[in-house]
Amino acid sequence: MKARWKTSSPLRFRPPLLLSVCLLLLITLALSPHVAARCFGVPQGTEEPSEEGEWSLTIEVASSNGFMTSATLGVDPAATEGYDREFDAIEPLFLFVPRGGDVELTLYAYFYYPDNPETAVGSSINPAATVGLTTSVIDPQANMTWPLQVVYLLREDVFINMSWDANRTRQLGGYSVELLTPFGEILPMAEISSYSFLASTGAYDFAIGAISETEGPAPERLLIGGIITVYALAVAIILLLRRARKSRR
Predict the structure, then answer these.
(1) How many other C-beta atoms are found inside a 10 Å radius of the C-beta of residue 189?
(2) To the nearest whole percent, how much of the chain has pLDDT over 70?
(3) Per-residue pLDDT for 204 more than 90?
(4) For the chain, how long is the longest CA-to-CA vector?
């Protein structure tokens, strides 16, 4: 009778190891690039923060009867939360919100800070007038807000369209940029590039917020945690089954 030699190869895959490799591949394929980037810090192509933390975004505002204006917000490490002459631009006197008399401008948009003495001054003709900033730049913070006011001064109802570069909002790395409307809506500005509303004579108070995402979205973290837990349980069950089979032999 011929002797039978037992051979073993260090490269042979055992069932638990093979299952582990398959599960890891499935996890990798299941994760979208967006989720993987947000959870593990993988670069997302062009969605890089601008150099030296500087960033700006212009909001174009146009009415259906042909009037246009704009306002620009920004971030700069050298700026402050208040008024900065080197960064911010104040509306000229003729753009003051009129409390009576002739309307000198039909449509305009500005960032309104009523508690800032630099931008809440009056004039000899209109002491109660207020003025805003056509450009408002602040220093980087965890949560930033620009109070945007859109004013329309004719007595006919029109549609007003606000538009911006959605790709630009993605360049503020680590932040989610949102538009808060006077009608209770919160819109992700990286996913849409415009917003329209029906306006009559008056002022409409919007706000643009940039919220830090350094902690990462909870749903994505839960997804990763759930997948890892299922993977660990599957491997543990298979190892227990193998031990049970060996004990029966």
Answers:
(1) 24
(2) 58
(3) yes
(4) 118
Closest by Cα among 136, 50, 123, 38 to 86: 136
Cβ contacts of 206 within 8 Å, gap of 6 or more? 147, 148, 149, 150, 162, 179, 180, 181, 182
- How is residue 163 written in tokens? 């538009």
- Tokens representing residue 133 in the block: 């900033």
What is the DSSP annotation of 76-124? -TT--SS--TTT-EEPPGGGS--SSS--S-SEEEEE--TT-TTTS---S
6 in a domain, yes or no? Answer: no
Contact 72, 58 (CB under 8 A): yes
Confidence band of 177 (pLDDT split at 50, 70, 90) = very high
Q: Where are the alpha helices (DSSP H) in the chain?
A: 15-30, 33-40, 166-169, 218-248
Is residue 80 situated within a structural domain? yes
Q: Which domain holds residue 110?
A: 51-212
Report yes or no on 225 lying in a domain.
no
Q: At what angle do helices 15-30 and 218-248 cross, to 10 degrees?
A: 170
pLDDT value for 119: 58
pLDDT confidence of residue 24: 58
Q: How many domains does the chain have?
A: 1
**Average pLDDT, integer, range 201-205:** 91
* Structural domain contains residue 244: no
Contact 243, 210 (CB under 8 A): no
Q: In the numeric block, which tokens belong to residue 33?
A: 């690039």
Mean pLDDT of 172-184: 91
* Mean pLDDT value across residues 142-167: 93
